[in-house]
Amino acid sequence: MDSFEGIFEFVAVAESGGFSAAAKKLGCSTSHISRQVARLEKRTGSVLFARTTRQINLTENGAFYYQQCKQLVTGLQQANERLNQQQFDLSGTLKVSAAGAFAERYIAPALMEFAAQHPELNIEIDFNSRMVNFVEDGIDFAIRYGELNDSNLIARKLISRSMMVVASPSYLDAHGTPNHPNQLKSHRCIIANNDHWTFNIDDTKQSIKVTGNWRSNNANVVLEACKQGLGIAYMPQSTFTESLAQKSLVPILEPYCISGATSWIVYQNKQFMPLRARLAIDFLLARFSSWD
């Protein structure tokens, strides 16, 4: 086509469900909307809407065309916003939901760097592992760990971390060192998120059910309990960096540990995201792109 004229009006009608509603949304007359859509239909050679006296619906061609045009309109809106982003400071409130030691030790400091670059922006971080309602709670995005099952959300991979099994020297001296994951069944294990630990055994992933006298969904508490000799822990390797360097914990079962414990940036699947949220997500993705 030689022109994009009528695209915005067409998308507005499709999303508003009528010419009058689209006119109100775009701040123009209903007749203007009608003319623009009619011209667009003439140029494309397709009937885009099935009109009745009571309602208006997309035709099959119209539905296909709308999906393509919607991406164009969204892309143009975002391009305009990005073009102007250097002309003003980010403002408003960025609300983030996060959970786990990784978020506390690494995500929060990274967002502090982002806040320093945008002094007019307010940032709220809610450290809670519960499932959030992005609309009701006003959450812009969440940092989550593990497998994600909600298809209504967009999940972008932030990092993958190797898992590690560790124990204190005092625990191993008292109870012995397991040399196969199956032997964990006879050991005290410190349980974090679940009591089924996955290992690479004979080139396949196998789940081992473990038991123990200590359970916590807080990684720092699990770490401290492990250092105190209360049992064996299995968490991302980055959780144990300092303790391994100080030799207060010892890695075990290394050949069986899986890799790919993934942290995600999760947000609602919606057409238009506030600039503050989009830039914060881009900042985190860039910040951790080469994270080891």
TrEMBL record:
It comes from the Bacteria. GO terms for molecular function: DNA-binding transcription factor activity; sequence-specific DNA binding. It holds the Pfam family LysR_substrate. Transmembrane segments: none annotated. Gene3D superfamilies: 3.40.190.290, Winged helix-like DNA-binding domain superfamily/Winged helix DNA-binding domain (1.10.10.10). Coiled coil: none annotated. Belongs to the LysR transcriptional regulatory family. InterPro entries: LysR-type_TF_proteobact-type, LysR_HTH_N, LysR_subst-bd, WH-like_DNA-bd_sf, WH_DNA-bd_sf. Keywords: DNA-binding, Transcription, Transcription regulation. The keyword Glycosyltransferase does not apply. This is LysR family transcriptional regulator. One of its GO terms (biological process) is DNA-templated transcription. The keyword Transcription regulation applies.
